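Continuing the batch. This is chain 6 of the set; chains 1 through 5 are on the previous pages. Same settings as before, nothing changed between runs. Recording input and output for traceability.
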Amino acid sequence: MAGMGDAFFFGYGSLVNRTTHGYDEAYRARVTGWGRIWMQTDLREAAYLTATPAPGVEIEGLVAGVPGGDWAALDEREQGYLRHAIDGGGLVHEAGRPIAAQIYAVPHHRAVPGQARPILLSYLDVVVQGYLREFGEQGARGFFATTGGWDTPVLDDRAAPRYPRHRDLSRAERAFVDAELAALGTTILRV
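Output for chain 6:
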């Protein structure tokens, strides 16, 4: 078994959906001191999730081992994000041994004024499917409650998904996502 020097990362978005990656050593976890927001930036065509320092806030996700401690492939997947060490006291996990982990967060960039960068529904679906499978409906509702930026419009691209790691959702999973967005009053844009 590996020790405290193992390379782990905390996933709080699409990485919670185990079908989007091959990180076999993954455990449910919570991190304190970080929040999650939808960011609109002039660097991308669509909004995306990022972690942001948030004292006292707690979010759920997965902590996963980086195979061989090689961050290169994960850094490539998370291009544009920077890694930050998670304070040892801020991480609770089910690994069954002490580990050290890092979290990816994006430096704040400004969006082009007047040009909304919508949330892709195909991306949101992947994230929520992961939370439903890992944490049940209560955990998935927690994702919505602990994520900021819901004033960002959502582009319904389910018929022709733009998110490269999109997944098919069950009827119940789609209904759950749709109900949560309706409860938030989120604007849905049709393709």
